């Protein structure tokens, strides 16, 4: 026993323990919603989607559909017993369209039948008579006509106009940034079981069980206490299941309520991509002033987001874009304005980074342009603009940075470990020697604010039971979507009780266990739920300490938990022995835990405050090779140094960093959403929408965590959030591609290129740079003209 | 009736809709839900399962997309899914490495990766990064960024190599499994049907011809990588199918110094070695043709008969002067690949006629260059695919013969005749090359779509021609990004 006492826990915090479901993933035993056993009498649901981007519904004919085999229910907006609107914050999202449709893919009618095939066939047999209305599809038109889902908002510090007038150098520009389909491998799915007392048990693939509970109650017109939502795991979420899992769940609930039969709905890949929103495309316009060293003195930046037809989460998403338009740089005097444009597309929604990536891309574009104008290495310009010292450590929304030197240290470290300067020379040599293929490299930083900017969401709960055999049942309000949250929370509880995680059973997130939870979003899953679970565990542990001290007549300080054992002055006993003793002595072995983030506040009217508890930092260096004759490219090497404070689980954190980087690279390279002129998405599946494959990742891929820099804030075991920040490390690949293009002209001309950098865009940008270098008139400024002539094919 | 093994259990099916996919069969008939649907279009690999069939010696393992493969394909084969891999002493090495090295995050794509790596272990036990990347090019993961999956592959295959034969229970059972599969009669008149729909499973070309004459409305199905989409994406039901899976003489590949003949139902995987040896660029193009899972099922004949304007092999076959042997009943005729395509998805095939084999002549001095440009390097469809066949006069260095064909530039794969006219008989100078590029604008009026704009397609066609000409001039400067790992 003494030997055991001297060893450490194998599965406590800071250990690279594998995913709690890893063995189940690899054997196919992990159950997702669509894998659940069918209930007897089960109904399958299929929605009839709008074919028009904007139209008035004149008549809906469901006669044929109702008469088809197996059909049990056909519902329209009129059949929703409670509230029709399932909008998460502001409203505006009808469960089924009533009177008008506002995007291609909007559900209008839902059909339930005995089999999925029957439901689909009947849904297709629904006939709707439309009167077509003119859609607004283009963000420029929406902006010009002030066609907004929410009012514009501004953050302002100092006198940006004056700063620009006084500046030695000035550039103006515009950048279009594409959206991104989540492409979670598991599409939206729900299974609903009516329960007694008119209640509903809802198995949903959602990041937000409480919101599903609230909305199911709302559409049915019943109390929340009649609805239980259960989420064991998702096959990926990435923000796409934060609000938009609600539609299928509420539709299934309405049908289940009406028929009193269990009902399930699983969206096909095509329906999923048509029905649900994506990352917001943005149009950014900027004017910046800077000195001869490249240091910014003032910026005026307009960020216009293409929100789709309804607000959804666009309020907070555009706010976050504005919060991150500084990325790691002191902007000087700044005026940042956010516009939330309404278009007749699916309602764009949360996606890893939540507007932050779009804001950041704008300032990184600006850094590159400044550098090319001044003939400097873009890295030099970036470093000169880093926040530093007392005078330059406050953001444009008046939050003071606490770790302002960390990023510079990290940059120095990565420059060395990635061998930046020698490789820069090697790249120049290569480019001189090669006519067709060119290499490029970029090192870019990330500073990402951690906390929901909607302050009240920064709270969480947990529930822990210790059973008499010493095994533990753990539940918390966060959801598992692959990010390893459950594993981390398990490790946290293991650490508190000093027992291995195999004694701690993680269970499905359920609204009847932990109520009123926030979505698992904003990278906050472990920060909030980990702390709530720690608090629950601490409560039980303290009871055990107090009991043991009294029972063994020792002081509480003499009770120590270590590696499955409990140390009691001169004797030891196993954890489970102490639990048995405590139970027999009538000690409560169950507790809830609760946590709310301290210190944060934000006054949106003044656009000032401390919206973020802390910042997470990262730096990435990417090298690419491009083919100037076709625009094709390949990532050759990536080096990343990322800050997770003291890591709860280095293996999981590195997984998040690599995966986030890959997703960011995809967003900015091959993932292109294309709509036709009638507003129909032309890339509704993986045949046309290309997320990165294995060969798109660099064969040299080095990821390190910053060592010995625990979070200065009192987070759970001094860790930092890791979900979203690494996505923006992918910006380095985008900048590296531009670097390679710019090499065609000796880095004198900044390539004008919108995101994503598809091979086609790279081709045209290269063409325009090489045209500029031979002083012929530019034939293709950007890719706008090529987008407009896109047409339907195949 | 069809017969097959699900892992080690013999299964016979008589009454089933032959339109049923293997994925739905597993999930809905057997409740085996480890295999996932991610896209139902053969693009994401979440549904990957492995089929084993008797090979020349031992068993041959192939990863396929269960989401678009149809149940009759299983006849005479062993179906292996992620639930079947576990070993008596625990997880299969592939599973163990994937779990231990953090190869899964959300876990939804994981069963597909596990199965692709399992097949890799059987087919290329030497492992390695390049083989792994190729094996998983058709498996999309949205969580990991792939690095830990590649590491898991390297570790798992190392573990397998270190074991004495057998490395797992599949090896241990292989002799018995092979015997059991060979016992399954592949005789005539096998079929699978339900009340409405029928599938025939002929075993000889004669039977195919006969069956198609009797049922001219039937659709031939080889790999179902295109027809499967009609079923899962367009929700069509095909009432009569003729499966070519078991027709050995339509899968034969024979070659000598003068020609290569490939049975129309030979899979692209099976064609690869022969074509790559004769025409290295053909091999490289096939490496970028869809994914391993698709190439294991897709056939040369299918790629021709579907007559897609963006099929990748037709431009190469046209450039190589390939001919197609068509058959109807006992009558055969031979048509050039060049004349086979009549319009968008329309071919020269008459009612009741099918492609029996493809004949590719081998000519002295001939060099083939072929390139595709797509948004993503792997597992993507061409925006433009260009194929260039040249014969240079060794003495004069003039172009004796030239054939150029493109995909993605017109409603069908098509020759660049104006361009050929300029190059034919000419010496390869910069001026000539630019004239030839300009001539492409006479040859093609490409369209804009979600993959590329027409202007880009025009420019790229010229770029590919220039690239081919550079190669013809024996310039060894690397010209493609795929030359770099």
Automatic annotation (TrEMBL), chain A:
Family matches, as SUPFAM superfamilies: CO dehydrogenase molybdoprotein N-domain-like (SSF54665), Molybdenum cofactor-binding domain (SSF56003)
Provide the Aldehyde oxidase/xanthine dehydrogenase a/b hammerhead domain boundaries. 27-134
Q: Which residues form the signal peptide?
A: none
InterPro entries reported for this sequence: Ald_Oxase/Xan_DH_a/b, Ald_Oxase/Xan_DH_a/b_sf, Ald_Oxase/xanthine_DH-like, AldOxase/xan_DH_MoCoBD1, AldOxase/xan_DH_MoCoBD2, AldOxase/xan_DH_Mopterin-bd_sf, Xanthine_DH_Mopterin-bd_su
Name of protein? Xanthine dehydrogenase molybdopterin binding subunit
Gene name of the encoded protein = xdhB
Top-level taxon: Bacteria
Q: Write out the similarity annotation.
A: Belongs to the xanthine dehydrogenase family.
For the region Disordered, give the residue spans. Answer: 768-794
GO terms (molecular function) for this protein are: 2 iron, 2 sulfur cluster binding; iron ion binding; molybdenum ion binding; xanthine dehydrogenase activity
What is the organism field in this record? Spiribacter aquaticus
EC number(s) in its UniProt entry? 1.17.1.4
Biased segments, Basic and acidic residues type: 781-794
| Cofactors that this protein relies on | [2Fe-2S] cluster; Mo-molybdopterin; FAD; Mo-molybdopterin cytosine dinucleotide
From TrEMBL, chain B:
Family annotation (CDD domains): fer2
Q: Does the keyword Transcription regulation apply?
A: no
Keyword presence, Metal-binding: yes
Question: Which SMART domains does the entry mention?
Answer: CO_deh_flav_C
Q: Kindly state which keywords UniProt assigns to this record, in alphabetical order.
A: FAD, Flavoprotein, Iron, Metal-binding, Oxidoreductase
- The segment(s) forming the 2Fe-2S ferredoxin-type domain are 1-85
Q: Tell me which InterPro entries the record gives.
A: 2Fe-2S-bd, 2Fe-2S-bd_dom_sf, 2Fe-2S_ferredoxin-like_sf, 2Fe-2S_ferredoxin-type, 2Fe2S_fd_BS, Ald_Oxase/xanthine_DH-like, Beta-grasp_dom_sf, CO_DH_flav_C
Q: Which residue range or ranges hold the FAD-binding PCMH-type domain?
A: 192-365
Superkingdom of the organism of origin:
Bacteria
What SUPFAM superfamilies does the annotation carry? Answer: 2Fe-2S ferredoxin-like, CO dehydrogenase flavoprotein C-terminal domain-like, CO dehydrogenase ISP C-domain like, FAD-binding/transporter-associated domain-like
What Pfam families does its record include? CO_deh_flav_C (PF03450), FAD_binding_5 (PF00941), Fer2 (PF00111), Fer2_2 (PF01799)
GO terms (molecular function) for this protein are: 2 iron, 2 sulfur cluster binding; FAD binding; iron ion binding; xanthine dehydrogenase activity
Instruction: Name the EC number(s).
Output: 1.17.1.4
Q: What class of enzyme is it?
A: oxidoreductase
Record-linked PANTHER family: XANTHINE DEHYDROGENASE
Query: What is the protein name given in its UniProt record?
Result: Xanthine dehydrogenase small subunit
Q: Which organism is it from?
A: Spiribacter aquaticus
| Primary gene name | xdhA
């Amino acid at each position: 026993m003494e030997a055991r006492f001297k060893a450490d826990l194998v599965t406590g915090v800071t250990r690279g323990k594998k995913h709690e479901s890893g063995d189940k993933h690899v054997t196919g035993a992990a159950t997702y919603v669509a894998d659940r056993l069918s209930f007897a009498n089960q109904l399958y649901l299929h929605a009839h989607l709008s074919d028009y981007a904007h139209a008035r519904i004149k008549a809906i004919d469901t006669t044929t559909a109702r008469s088809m085999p197996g059909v049990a229910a056909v519902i329209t907006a009129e059949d929703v017993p409670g509230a029709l609107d399932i909008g998460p914050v502001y409203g505006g999202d009808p469960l089924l369209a009533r009177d008008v449709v506002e995007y291609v893919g909007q559900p209008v009618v839902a059909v339930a039948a005995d089999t999925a095939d029957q439901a689909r066939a009947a849904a297709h047999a629904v006939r709707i008579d439309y009167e077509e209305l003119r859609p607004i599809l283009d963000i420029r038109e929406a902006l010009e006509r002030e066609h907004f889902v929410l009012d514009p908002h501004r953050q302002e510090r100092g006198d940006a106009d004056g700063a620009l007038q006084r500046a030695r150098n000035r550039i103006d520009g515009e950048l279009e940034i594409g959206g991104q389909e989540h492409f979670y491998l598991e599409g939206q799915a729900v299974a609903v079981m009516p329960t007694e007392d008119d209640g509903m048990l809802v198995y949903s693939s959602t990041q937000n069980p409480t919101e599903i509970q609230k909305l199911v109650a709302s559409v049915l017109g019943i109390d929340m206490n009649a609805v239980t939502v259960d989420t064991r795991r998702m096959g990926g979420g990435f923000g796409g299941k934060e609000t938009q899992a609600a539609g299928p769940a509420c539709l299934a609930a309405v049908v289940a309520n009406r028929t009193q039969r269990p009902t399930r709905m699983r969206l096909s890949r095509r329906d999923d991509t048509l029905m649900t929103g994506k990352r917001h495309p943005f149009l950014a316009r900027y004017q910046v002033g800077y000195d001869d060293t490249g240091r910014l003195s003032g910026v005026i930046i307009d960020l216009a987001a293409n929100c789709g037809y309804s607000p959804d989460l666009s309020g907070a998403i555009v706010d976050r874009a504005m919060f991150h338009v500084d990325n790691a740089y002191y902007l000087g005097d700044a005026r940042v304005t956010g516009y939330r444009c309404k278009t007749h597309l699916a309602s764009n929604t949360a996606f890893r980074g939540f507007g932050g990536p779009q804001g950041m891309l704008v300032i990184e574009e600006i850094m590159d342009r400044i550098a090319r104008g001044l003939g400097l290495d873009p890295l030099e310009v970036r470093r000169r603009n880093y926040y530093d010292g007392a005078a330059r450590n406050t953001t444009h929304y008046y939050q003071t940075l606490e770790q302002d030197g960390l990023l510079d240290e990290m940059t120095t470290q990565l420059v060395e470990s990635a061998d930046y300067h020698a490789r820069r020379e090697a790249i120049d040599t290569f480019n001189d020697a090669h006519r067709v293929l060119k290499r490029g490299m970029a090192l870019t930083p990330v500073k990402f604010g951690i906390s929901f900017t909607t302050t009240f969401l920064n709270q969480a709960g947990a529930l822990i039971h210790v059973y008499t055999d010493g095994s533990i049942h753990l539940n918390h309000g966060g959801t598992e979507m692959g990010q390893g949250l459950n594993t981390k929370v398990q490790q946290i509880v293991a650490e508190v009780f000093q027992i291995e995680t195999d004694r701690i059973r993680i269970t499905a997130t359920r609204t009847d266990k932990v109520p009123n939870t926030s979505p698992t979003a904003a990278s906050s899953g472990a920060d909030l739920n980990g702390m709530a679970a720690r608090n629950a565990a601490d409560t039980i542990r303290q009871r055990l300490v107090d009991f043991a001290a009294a029972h063994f007549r020792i002081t509480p300080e003499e009770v120590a938990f270590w590696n499955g054992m409990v140390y009691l002055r001169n004797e030891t006993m196993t954890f489970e022995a102490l639990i048995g003793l405590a139970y027999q002595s009538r000690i409560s072995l169950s507790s809830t835990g609760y946590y709310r983030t301290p210190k944060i506040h934000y006054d949106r009217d003044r656009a000032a405050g401390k919206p973020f508890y802390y910042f997470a930092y990262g730096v990435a260096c990417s090298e690419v090779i491009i083919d100037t004759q076709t625009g094709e490219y390949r990532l050759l090497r990536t080096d990343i140094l990322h800050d997770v404070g003291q890591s709860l689980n280095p293996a999981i954190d590195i997984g998040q960093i690599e995966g986030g980087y890959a997703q960011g690279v995809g967003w900015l390279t091959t993932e292109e959403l294309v709509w036709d002129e009638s507003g129909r998405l032309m890339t509704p599946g993986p045949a046309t929408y290309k997320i990165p494959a294995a060969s798109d990742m660099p064969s040299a891929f080095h990821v390190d965590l910053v060592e010995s820099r625990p979070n200065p804030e009192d987070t759970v075991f001094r860790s930092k959030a890791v979900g979203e920040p690494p996505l923006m490390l992918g910006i380095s690949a985008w900048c590296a591609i531009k670097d390679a293009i710019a090499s065609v002209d000796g880095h004198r001309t900044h390539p004008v290129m919108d995101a994503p950098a598809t091979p086609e865009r790279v081709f045209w940008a290269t063409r325009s740079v090489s045209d500029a270098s031979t002083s012929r008139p530019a034939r293709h400024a950007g890719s706008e003209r090529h987008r407009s002539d896109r047409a339907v094919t195949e | 009736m069809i017969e097959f093994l699900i892992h080690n259990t013999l299964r016979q099916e008589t009454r089933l809709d032959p339109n049923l996919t293997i994925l739905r069969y597993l999930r809905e008939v057997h409740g085996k839900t480890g295999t996932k649907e991610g896209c139902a279009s053969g693009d994401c690999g979440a549904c990957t399962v492995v089929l084993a069939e008797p090979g020349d010696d031992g068993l041959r393992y192939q990863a396929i997309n269960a989401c678009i493969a149809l149940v009759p394909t299983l006849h005479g084969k062993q179906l292996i899914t992620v639930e079947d891999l576990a070993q008596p002493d625990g997880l299969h090495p592939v599973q163990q490495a994937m779990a231990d090295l953090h190869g899964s995050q959300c876990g939804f794509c994981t069963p597909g990766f596990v199965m692709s790596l399992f097949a890799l272990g059987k087919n290329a036990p030497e492992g390695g990064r390049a083989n792994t990347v190729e094996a998983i090019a058709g498996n999309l993961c949205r969580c990991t960024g792939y690095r830990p999956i590649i590491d898991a592959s390297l570790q798992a295959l190392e573990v397998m190599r270190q074991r004495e034969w057998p490395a797992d229970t599949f090896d241990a059972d292989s002799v018995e499994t092979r015997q059991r599969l060979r016992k399954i009669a592949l005789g005539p008149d096998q079929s699978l049907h339900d009340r409405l729909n029928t599938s025939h499973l002929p075993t000889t070309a004669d039977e195919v011809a006969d069956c198609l004459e009797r049922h001219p409305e039937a659709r031939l199905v080889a790999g179902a990588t295109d027809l499967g989409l009609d079923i899962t994406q367009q929700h069509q039901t095909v009432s009569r199918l003729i499966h070519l899976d078991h027709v050995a003489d339509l899968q034969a590949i024979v070659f000598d110094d003068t020609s290569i003949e490939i049975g129309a139902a030979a899979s692209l995987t099976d064609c690869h070695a022969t074509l790559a040896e004769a025409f290295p660029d053909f091999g490289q193009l096939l490496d970028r043709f869809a994914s391993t899972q698709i190439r294991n099922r897709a056939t040369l004949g299918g790629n021709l008969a579907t007559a897609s304007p963006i099929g990748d092999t037709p431009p190469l076959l046209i450039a190589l002067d390939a001919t197609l042997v068509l058959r109807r009943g006992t009558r055969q005729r031979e048509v050039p690949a060049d004349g086979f395509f009549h319009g968008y998805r329309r071919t020269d095939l008459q009612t009741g006629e099918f492609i029996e084999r493809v004949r590719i002549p081998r000519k002295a001095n001939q060099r083939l260059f072929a390139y595709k440009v797509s948004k993503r390097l792997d597992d993507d469809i061409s925006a433009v695919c260009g194929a260039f066949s040249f014969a240079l006069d060794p003495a004069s260095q003039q172009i004796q013969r030239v054939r150029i064909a493109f995909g993605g530039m017109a409603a069908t794969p098509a020759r660049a005749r104006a361009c050929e006219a300029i190059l034919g008989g000419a010496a390869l100078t910069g001026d000539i090359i630019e004239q030839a590029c300009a001539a492409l604008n006479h040859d093609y009026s490409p369209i804009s779509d979600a993959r590329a704009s027409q202007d880009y397609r025009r420019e790229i066609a010229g770029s590919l021609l220039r690239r081919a000409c550079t190669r013809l001039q024996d310039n060894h400067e690397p010209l493609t990004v795929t030359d770099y790992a």
